[in-house]
TrEMBL record:
Keyword list, A-Z: ATP-binding, Kinase, Nucleotide-binding, Serine/threonine-protein kinase, Transferase
Residue intervals of the GAF domain: 16-156
Protein name: ATP-binding protein
Keyword hit for Transferase: yes
Domain (Histidine kinase/HSP90-like ATPase) ranges: 187-298
GO MF: ATP binding
Gene3D superfamilies: 3.30.450.40, Histidine kinase-like ATPase, C-terminal domain
Annotated Pfam families: GAF_2, HATPase_c_2
Provenance organism: Nocardioides hankookensis
């Protein structure tokens, strides 16, 4: 078993230049562990709506990324939602994951382990290991998996922070075959929320999204931009994306670690900071935030109603 002690980071994870390189390095480390039949690495994507998944096996060709619906009831989605690892012999999972267990029995799997890749506030994704022999999952084995998951999470945050430091052109819009996306650079100024709302409304109108979803998105956006201005005191970047009827809006500030506000629920009428995030929690289908050394990314997701989906298609 490799040396995964504290402070000992595999070279591939330490030197990875992008998320793909992080995932492929982690795959290699996992495949080198004893009794491993196949592995996979997943990263949260689409505002938590899906997992981007990279499967691999020792004898397999170069693997391609695919997607897992975040609402599928499989071990990876479970550990990403809960932040808690699961492991054991395959038959111990039959009561909950009957379909997966049946397929893995046929493939020769006898045990599995799924571990979250820890983020600052919520998991960034997870790793999955299938074994061709029963495992005792002793302390050393669990420590190895926990350490690899943590090191991979650290590497993902590092390369993402490096990427978002690249300046974003004001009003730049990018469109591909599957996802519509537009970004706007925002100043650290009380007028930033107004500029963000105008850009959001104009962008969504151009994509054919109208009426109530736009009003809801404006309310939520105004709150997270205001929080960024108040707590980060730095420039930020607004990104809007539309993918298969799911609207994801994120604001990335450059205020450094610890710049985010937290939701506040109390009866003090004089308290204002953080109260807006309670509104976001009430209006959005999902939302969250994540901090790293560069700053904080706050995001929310709206599932557009059928009428808005049709207009935006």
């Amino acid at each position: 078993m490799g040396d995964y002690r504290e402070g000992s980071v595999p070279v591939g994870l330490a030197s990875a230049a992008d998320v793909d390189a992080v995932a492929r390095s982690l795959v290699r480390e996992l495949l080198a562990l004893p009794d491993v039949r196949a592995v996979g690495v997943a990263l949260v994507e689409g505002g938590g709506r899906r997992l981007r998944f990279l499967p691999a096996s020792p004898a397999g060709a170069r693997a391609d990324w695919c997607h897992i619906d975040a609402y599928d009831d499989v071990p990876l989605t479970g550990v990403v939602r809960s932040g808690t690892a699961v492991f054991g012999d395959l038959d111990s999972f039959a009561g909950r994951y009957a379909g997966l267990v049946a397929a893995q029995v046929d493939a020769g799997t006898q045990a599995l382990a799924a571990y979250p890749l820890p983020g600052v506030t919520t998991p960034l994704g997870g790793l999955l290991v299938y074994y061709d022999r029963r495992q005792d999952f002793g302390g050393e084995q669990r420590e190895v998996l926990t350490t690899l998951a943590r090191q991979a999470g650290d590497a993902v945050r590092r390369v993402r922070a490096r990427g978002v430091a690249t300046p974003v052109a004001t009003g730049r819009a990018e469109v591909d075959a599957s996802v519509r996306s537009a970004s706007l650079a925002l100043e650290s100024d009380p007028r930033a929320a107004s500029a963000a709302r105008r850009f959001l409304r104009a962008t969504l109108a151009g994509w054919g999204v109208e009426d109530d979803p736009v009003d809801t998105a404006e309310l939520c956006l105004s709150e997270i931009v205001t929080n960024a201005v108040i707590h980060a005191d730095a420039t930020s970047e607004l990104t809007i994306s539309l993918d298969d009827g799911m609207l994801t809006v994120s604001v990335r500030d450059h205020g450094g670690a610890g710049s985010a506000a937290e939701p506040v629920e109390d009866d003090d009428p004089m308290r204002v900071f953080g109260r807006g995030l309670v509104l976001v929690d009430a209006l959005a289908d999902s939302w969250g935030s994540e901090r790293d050394d560069v700053g904080t990314t706050s995001w929310f997701v709206l599932d557009l109603p059928d009428g808005a989906r049709s207009a935006a298609s």
